[in-house]
């Protein structure tokens, strides 16, 4: 960009041996998202994501899984149920953090997020099994954005081993469900995937169900945990934001007699919603988004060749002062008015927009509620360096000292 100027907001380069177009302006990003037939989604290391999973399939196969999933986790009635379901574990986790006093924010947030997601997706109960699965998912996630070198010692090779073990675990769960062996009737995502049918009444194969469940945990687990961890970080750094957040959240539960807050309560909590949006904008969990040109495309006098990778550079959009004033300032009030069109792409766009976006927002908001009402905390290393691979996170894993707020405070 320094060499050629902004142009139409894209430039060409070579990344990891592939010719690629890097897209960094809202207008061209919008065009690419809208032209789903010209630019198909194409994740790297799709074998690790699962070639038959939602993020990898196209056409009717994509539409039928997506429609089920959107109903199950992204509609108001499902979110209402999920809100009631996830809060007890958040409350218990925060109490245990206060007992610990000092803790690694990221690993603790991950534990509680994984417990909730494990229960929602496959009815897993917390326990040692869940902990070892967490490690397997960690290994799998690290491989997804690594060079595909299938040699022992490399992240990609290890990720393949983790994936095999995870598939074996989920296959056992699926068999139990199919045989009705010792599993009470549940209503989790695996049950839902088992029921999906296409126009001819064909169901998903066992293999497709298992691949989709693995992909859903991959998509929904670390992304949500990282976002909540960044909220811990930003709120510690911006105390006046925490003060306003706390006031709104205390007011929201003033007349409650111990019951949890609901999605209806949250819909009235404007500042909390702003804090969620600002957290995910600045966290940039998905810093880039992947597409592939299916044929040669002309755009405003430029040619995008067939089979070139098209990489949407989301972090650039979110940190460009032309899109967001003073972009590195954590300022939830900026969300009092909507972002400029096409500048906010945390969840991607078009027919592929993240189907878990409302679920993620809900979990972050509920976490913020219990955290801000009941606890105070500080960063042990406020100047910790940030690492960016595989995802952005302070290098110390957000080490915090946390305690319960007493009545006198
Ligand atoms: C803050 C948390 C999250 C972030 C930042 C995030 C971000 C994204 C992004 C950028 C995409 C790609 C969209 C595109 O290509 O245009 C995506 C897709 C996807 N996400 Fe999320 N996501 C989050 C939470 C979740 C959750 C909770 C789930 C739960 C199930 C989930 C499941 C998926 C799936 C299945 C896809 C593929 C969708 C498709 O190809 O149709 N994500 N997400």
TrEMBL record:
One of its GO terms (biological process) is brassinosteroid homeostasis. Heme binds at residue 354. Its main location: membrane. PROSITE patterns: CYTOCHROME_P450. One of its GO terms (cellular component) is membrane. It is a single-pass membrane protein. InterPro entries: Cyt_P450 (IPR001128), Cyt_P450_CS (IPR017972), Cyt_P450_E_grp-I (IPR002401), Cyt_P450_sf (IPR036396). This is Cytochrome P450. The lineage of its organism: Eukaryota, Viridiplantae, Streptophyta, Embryophyta, Tracheophyta.
């Amino acid at each position: 960009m320094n060499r050629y100027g902004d142009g139409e907001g894209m430039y060409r380069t070579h990344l990891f041996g592939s010719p690629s177009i890097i897209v960094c302006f809202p207008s061209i990003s919008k065009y690419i998202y809208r032209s789903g037939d010209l630019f198909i989604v194409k994740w790297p290391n799709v074998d690790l994501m699962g070639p038959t999973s939602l993020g990898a399939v196209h056409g009717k196969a994509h539409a039928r899984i997506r429609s089920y999933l959107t109903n199950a986790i992204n509609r108001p009635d499902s979110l209402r149920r999920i809100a009631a379901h996830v809060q007890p574990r958040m409350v218990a986790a925060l109490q245990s953090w206060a007992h610990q006093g000092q803790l690694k924010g990221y690993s603790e947030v991950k534990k509680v997020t994984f417990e909730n997601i494990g229960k929602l997706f496959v009815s897993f109960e917390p326990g040692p099994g869940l902990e070892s699965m967490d490690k397997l998912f960690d290994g799998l996630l690290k491989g997804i954005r690594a060079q595909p070198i299938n040699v022992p010692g490399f992240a990609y090779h290890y990720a393949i081993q983790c994936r095999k073990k995870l598939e074996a675990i989920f296959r056992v769960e699926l068999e139990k469900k199919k045989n009705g062996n010792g599993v009470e009737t549940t209503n989790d995502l695996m049950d839902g995937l088992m029921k999906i049918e296409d126009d001819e009444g064909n169901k998903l194969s066992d293999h497709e169900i298992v691949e989709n469940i693995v992909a859903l945990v991959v998509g929904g687990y670390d992304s949500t945990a990282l976002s909540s961890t960044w909220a811990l970080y930003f709120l510690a750094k911006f105390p006046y934001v925490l003060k306003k957040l706390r006031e709104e959240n205390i007011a929201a539960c003033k007349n409650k007699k111990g019951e949890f807050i609901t999605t209806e309560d949250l819909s009235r909590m404007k500042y909390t919603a702003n804090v969620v949006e600002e957290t995910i904008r600045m966290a940039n969990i998905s810093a880039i988004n992947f597409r592939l040109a299916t044929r040669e495309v002309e755009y405003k006098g430029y040619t995008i060749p067939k089979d070139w990778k098209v990489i949407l550079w989301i972090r650039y959009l979110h940190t460009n002062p032309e899109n967001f004033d003073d972009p590195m300032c954590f300022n939830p009030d900026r969300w009092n008015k909507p972002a400029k069109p096409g500048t906010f792409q945390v969840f991607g766009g078009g027919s592929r927009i993240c189907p878990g976006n409302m679920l993620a927002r809900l979990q972050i908001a509920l976490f913020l509620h219990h955290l801000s009402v009941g606890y105070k905390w500080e960063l042990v290393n406020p100047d910790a360096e940030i690492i960016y691979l595989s995802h952005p996170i302070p290098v110390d894993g957000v080490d915090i000292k946390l305690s319960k707020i007493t009545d006198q405070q």
